[in-house]
Amino acid sequence: MRALRLIFLTALIFSFLTVPDSFSQSNVAKDRLNELDPAMVSADSRYIKQIISRTLEAKGRNNPEARPHYDCEIYSRNEFDLVNPHNPLIEKFLPKGFRFVYDYVETSPISGLPYLPVMLSESKSHYYHSRSPELKKEVIESSRISGINEEKTVAQFTGGLYIKANFYENYLNIFQVEIPSPLADNGSMFYNYYLVDSLAVDGRNTYRVMFFPSKWVSSPAFEGMMSIDAEDYALRSMHARLSSGGSVNWVNDLAIDVENQRLPDSTWFYKQDKIYIDLSVAPLGPSTVFSFLARRQIDYSEPSFSENQMLGLLDPKAPVLMHKDVLKNEEEYWASIRPYPLNEQEQGIYEMVDSIKQVPLYRGAEKIGNMLATGFFDFKYVGLGPYSSVYSFNDMEGSRLQMGFRTTKELSRRFRLMGYAAYGFADEAWKGGASAEIMIGNMPQRKLNLTYKHDLLPLGAGSFGFGNGDVVTSILTKKGGRKMSMIDDIAVTYQHEWSQGFNMTTGLERRTIFPSVHVPMAGPDGTLFDYVGYDQALLQLRFSKDEIVTRGVFDKHYVFSDYPVLTVNMAASMKGLGRNQYTFFRPEVSMKYTWLTPPVGSSNIVLNAGTIVGSVPYPLLKVFEGNETYRLKSKSFACMDYYEFAADTWTTLFWEHDFKGFFLGKIPLIKRLNLREVAIVRAAYGTIRDENNGIPGDPAFGACMVFPEGMNNLETPYVEAGVGLSNIFKVIRIDAIWRLTHRFANVDGSLVPHPNRFVINVGFEFNL
Q1: Nearest CA to 488 among 450, 519, 532, 523?
Q2: Tens digits of residue pLDDT in 419-443
Q3: For residues 405 and 382, is the Cβ–Cβ distance under 8 A?
Q4: What structural domains does the chain harbor?
């Protein structure tokens, strides 16, 4: 008997020694441990490995996404809540007439924190899935939004498609963060599994399995419990919570609950998904003032697995479609379609949330938040900004003051006017610009743009936004910002969205570039050019697949796609037509791709190639994007000067790989800082034909204009590489970049080390 006790005690101690650190740190694990009978814990893992192995083998028949076709009804409910509304700092500034909202404060069953709903939405939609032809389509039939302005542009995000929790997939993409599923094909690399119970559910034997991240996993991972049907080896339910060791910025907590159902034909299908996210905007850690809860519940019903006749009528390039009369506010309608009734408190939340919008404090906070996001502080009909460009400085202008405006959607949703004026105290010159946007349609987008600009622009710095620089760029400029040219630009463009995956922009542009002391324009015989002017026709075609797009009243932003995004740009001009001085054709193609490579992060790859057919002066050539500042600019070459290289046929590569803390997350103490490693490679290659070669003294010189001092060709490829450290206080990134080629410059006939062989760049990044 003593021998049996000794064997049992030894096995029990061994089993506890094999439990990962996260087991002892997790509140979930502690609760489960108190419930377990020690006899259920075993050092023999062969049985649980067999269960997981059979579950993985059965994924093909149990995963609904593996079916050739299916469609179903979806009801989705979204809620956005303010955490800890009783915080003294909030109560101090809360008007007495606004404190009725505390009647609606609830307590989270997951975090135990009080919260106050500030936005609610419901939607009813029909979801279509097909493997051949490939199609994933959600048609939103009705939507109801409270707490923000009700718009069709917002209604597209009230459905269930954008955050879908299918644990049969190897990775779950949560806001572009790839988290390995406990049922991933290689799940044993990330998780330890423990069989804790076997019980009957709906008359069927079911295994209960706990899972925890392996102690060597530094990337985001889950911990929790799943139930597996013992006969079909199908996932019946899953409770997964982001492990406390997983570093995801701004996310304090993340929990996902999934229920699947066994249908009468013995197949399995979705029943309900619940997603709970605790968000914080504090860069140094969780905040009790600016912390929010986001919750989504999706209920699936009426699944059908026959090929639906609607498939041929749906646009495969737009993942979300909406009915024309999608916005519905009648409570009677929603009460008739909800899969469950609302309780008394939930029924009153809609009225409370709509009342919040009338409180001046809320409207003021909304304006400040909008200013931080857009750069403009909006009054009723006009917004002023951008605030970051109110003051800047450079060697040509000295101190520069700028003020701009734009009209708001309260004035009109059909047009928006923008304008700015700036004055330089050193050159004593006024600059400015104006634009008008006319909305012909929003979904799909049809927009006419008219723009005018008279301002300084460094051609070798790439494209600038509205206005010219800001105070941060001024502070971080290395050489004072001298290499700038005055430009007059008038353009009319038309944007046409043929489908969500195919967008076209066409237009006409008249541009005049003037010389300056630091950027002269001279012919081979020394004749000075007063300006370079040309009119050009523009055409841009943009192709994408399954891309997530956000839409406002006037703006559309491309967020993410699992596939490469291809853009084709063409510009053409003919001498003698209008005021054209040159004939040329400039085709250019670029490819942008975010390659997710969990668990070792992701790569951002941008390829560009183009050519110029015709004879043109150097301002019309491809002037490679340099960076004469210490500011982080991912679309320019950190160690390249402005106007250093030019070409009429070229290709460039920008590659960055973010390891997401894969290495630093395994180092004791350092891993607590949640720092992330970045590898960087940038390369460029270009050639110049004789008729465009303006290099003084070059035997192949044949251009109509001499290159400015320091400009050369790129027949020897330019390459720079470096490393970066990001996620410093969650928002700061520092790069160290080395120039690997062209490390020496020709000065008065002798080679000297280039002054820009190594540089440190600093910038802000807001990533999850």
Answers
A1: 532
A2: 999 999 998 999 999 999 999 987 7
A3: yes
A4: 59-361 (no CATH), 375-764 (2.40.160.50)
E strands, 597-675, where?
602-611, 622-623, 646-647, 649-658
Q: Give, as one character, the DSSP assignment of residue 645.
A: B
Residues forming a β-bridge with 504: 496, 541
342-359 burial, b at 16+ Cβ within 10 Å, e below that, comes to beeeeeebbebbeebeee
* CA separation for the pair 279, 84 (Å, rounded): 12
Measured CA to CA, the distance from residue 302 to residue 640 in angstroms comes to: 60
Q: What is the model's pLDDT at position 692? A: 95
pLDDT at 6: 39
Q: Which helix (H) or strand (E) holds 320?
A: strand 320-322
Q: How far is CA 210 from the centre of its chain?
A: 33
Q: What is the pTM of this model?
A: 0.81
Q: Higher confidence at residue 139 or residue 522?
A: 522
* Cβ atoms within 10 Å of 300's Cβ, excluding its own: 21
For 390, residues 6+ apart whose C-beta sits below 8 A from its C-beta are 401, 402, 403, 471
Q: Pick 629 or 133 by higher pLDDT.
A: 629
- pLDDT at position 493 is 97
Rounded Cα–Cα distance for residues 277 and 79 (Å): 11
Q: Report DSSP state, residue 103.
A: G
Pick left, alpha or beta for residue 202 (phi over 0 → left; psi -120 to 50 → alpha; otherwise beta): left
For the CA atoms of 513, 518, 523, 529, the dihedral, rounded to the nearest 10 degrees, stands at 40
**HEC letters along 330-397:** CHHHHHHHCCCCCCHHHHHHHHHHHHHCCCHHHHHHHHHHHHHHHCCEECCCEEECCHHHCEEEECCC
Q: What is the pLDDT, as a whole number, of residue 38?
A: 52
Q: Are 632 and 618 in contact (CB under 8 A)?
A: no
Amino acid (1-letter code) at residue 143: S
Task: Name the nearest CA neighbour of 178 among 193, 194, 192, 190.
Answer: 190
What phi and psi values does residue 24 have, to the nearest 5 degrees? -75, -20
Average pLDDT over residues 342-346: 72
Q: Which of 135, 120, 133, 143 is nearest to 74 (CA)?
A: 143
Q: What is the pLDDT of residues 30-76, one digit of tens each?
A: 444 445 455 454 445 788 999 999 999 999 999 999 998 899 999 99
Of the candidates 726, 718, 715, 720, the residue with the CA atom closest to the CA atom of residue 689:
715
Residue 5's pLDDT band (cuts 50, 70, 90): very low
Residue that is written with structure tokens 């269930």 in the block: 160
Cis before 386 (ω within 30): yes
- Between the two ends of the chain, the Cα-to-Cα distance in Å is 57
As a whole number, the mean pLDDT across the chain is 82
Cα separation of 132 and 154, whole Å?
31
Q: What is the pLDDT of residue 122?
A: 87
- Give dist(CA 334, CA 350) in Å, integer: 12
The model's pLDDT over 440-475, given as tens digits with 9 standing for 90+, comes to 987 788 999 999 999 988 776 554 433 456 788 888
Strand partners, 5: none
Give the other-Cβ count within 10 Å of 31's Cβ: 9
The C-alpha atoms of residue 614 and residue 606 are separated, in whole angstroms, by 27
Confidence at residue 7, expressed as pLDDT on a 0 to 100 scale: 37
From 350-364, 407-421, 700-714, the region with the lowest mean pLDDT: 350-364
Q: What is the mean pLDDT of residues 745-766?
A: 86
Q: Which of 684, 686, 624 is nearest to 654 (CA)?
A: 684
Q: Alpha carbon of 25 to those of 16, 33, 43, 244, 661: distances in Å?
A: 14, 12, 21, 8, 21
Q: How confident is the model at residue 306 (pLDDT cuts 50, 70, 90)?
A: confident
Q: Is the peptide bond before 520 cis (omega within 30 degrees of 0)?
A: no
